[in-house]
Amino acid sequence: MQPYWGHHFYLPNQQHPLAQAVNESLEQARESVSFLVGCDAFEVVFTGSGTEANNLAILGIAQDQSPGHILVAAIEHDSVISAVESLVKRGWQVESIPCDQFGRVDADSVAQRLRDETVLVCVQLANPVMGTVQPIRQIADVCHKRGVRLHCDATQAFGKIAVDAVTLGVDTMAMSGHKFYGPRGSGALYLRGGLELSPIAYGEMREMGLRPGPENVPAWVGMGVAASLVSRCIDEVEASFCELRERFVNGLHSSLEGVVFLCPEDVLALPNTLCVQLPAVASKVQELARQLVVRSAETDAPPDEMNRVLTAAGRSPGQIARTLQISLGWTTSREQIDRAVDMLADACDSANL
Amino acid sequence: MQPYWGHHFYLPNQQHPLAQAVNESLEQARESVSFLVGCDAFEVVFTGSGTEANNLAILGIAQDQSPGHILVAAIEHDSVISAVESLVKRGWQVESIPCDQFGRVDADSVAQRLRDETVLVCVQLANPVMGTVQPIRQIADVCHKRGVRLHCDATQAFGKIAVDAVTLGVDTMAMSGHKFYGPRGSGALYLRGGLELSPIAYGEMREMGLRPGPENVPAWVGMGVAASLVSRCIDEVEASFCELRERFVNGLHSSLEGVVFLCPEDVLALPNTLCVQLPAVASKVQELARQLVVRSAETDAPPDEMNRVLTAAGRSPGQIARTLQISLGWTTSREQIDRAVDMLADACDSANL
Fold this sequence. Notes:
homodimer; alpha/beta; Aspartate Aminotransferase, domain 2; Aspartate Aminotransferase, domain 1; 2 domains; seven-stranded mixed sheet; four-stranded antiparallel sheet; 13 strands; globular
């Protein structure tokens, strides 16, 4: 990214010979992102974040049509749920799709809720709390049979599992650069070729007329490099995550009694995302095992994402209070896994003294 | 910015001791920006660009109220004009405020256009093409007498002249980091304490509930450092710009006949922005003096910003075709000014051969 803060400060469309080089770098980044997504470069719209990509996909389709019906999974990210809910005051009908105890959204339950007025269905690829991977292909088939567009928030999946937009059959898909070791301030929306979308902000339009303002070249170049890296090593990463996950699950089971992993092995889930119910209060464990960066549900109202997702999966407040979420990263080692298991076991013991 | 891409990757509100340090850095950046703007830190809302800040100020006020009347200067930036015009299809009435031949918007002509239904007036602080600085204080007084909010796009002014939001009396004011040597992807909106505004995108809300998505800490820290630098040296910068401008004006007048500077000395204008009518076709001069990065109007339809602004100032198509815009930067030297004068004079001669 460094050169694009300084020497290559030009914008891609400026009247200067050096601007051409900047333009080429930006289009190279677009190629790298499209390769990761499994689509054509012209189907990639750069944004400032995954949140912006979700807002663009949802508000952009609603922008220029009369109010209709939207289906949104109960366990979606805030940026999806809030964007959809903002349309209620403009006359749109919003309906929630439930999930099962493992956080799975069923294609049949989507099919049952589709109406003639349904314009859009929003189901994420993978849940950030439970890790659950959704049957997007089946949901896409159900949607397309009725001519309904499917938006898929895939921000949580990139860098953890292989993703292919065409195989998934989605119409729009959001991604966030910093979720796969790219820089903050970078994101993108996959928009299937031929589909229409309206911008949601205005100015000097870039990114195929869908985003105003100067291109954030450094951020998008950085995202492109991260995308190349993910494309190159995702198989190894996934295998390594699976091994580490198994080590963690086995380790915790043998060190502690009464541990429940919320996604059992036969449920399709991200291999790096672990949601575990402990035999102790999670926030207390978190406090006692300070060296571990883990997440527990915030108990204060309004409910946070973790609370919301676990409640949708049928967990009681008491169960949620004992649930911890742990994510593995690319640099997580076996030794760290073992230490994490020890720390958690010790913290649980201390918490219950 | 470097530490915030790596080690200090935490988000300000995360449950981790190191997140506190990130939060402090972000609030330090907000202090630096507020010092530059002449306001309190809680009146600064960070955004991803000046374009986003303009959209937020305009669409955010329209979001939760029934359609009214908006006044917008004819020479505003695209992001202001297009955001305002997007409201027409939602029932808003939009009216343009003309300018005089020097690009000046008169407070009286604003006063004459204010109606009972007027909700917002948009007038920029300084024009990016002609450099004209507007009588914002008088326009603010006229607006406030009628209880109307004034939004001021000040993106072009920071780093060139001293700006003080309180003295100007504006209600909202947009700025862009990369316009004063901060990074791309950084911007801010000044929102006068006590004023209400609605967000225009949704998700995990940050920035006082006005912007969703994770904070772009590296970009905003970079913008803060740039803001401190501007605060420290703006008087010297302004004095230096004035000297260089005089040198350029005198130099070009003595090397070429038939040169007209569009903002004469008695018109308040940015000291670094020069708009000059040449005795030759500007695009040809631009082509011949390739080493100079200058701007000429794009003749293709739709008219570009330069075309639009110069037309609003009463310039004919023939005059516009001979007009060049030149900007001085913090590192521009006397020698560069002299070379630029020589290059332009030579290019004009060659263009007319």
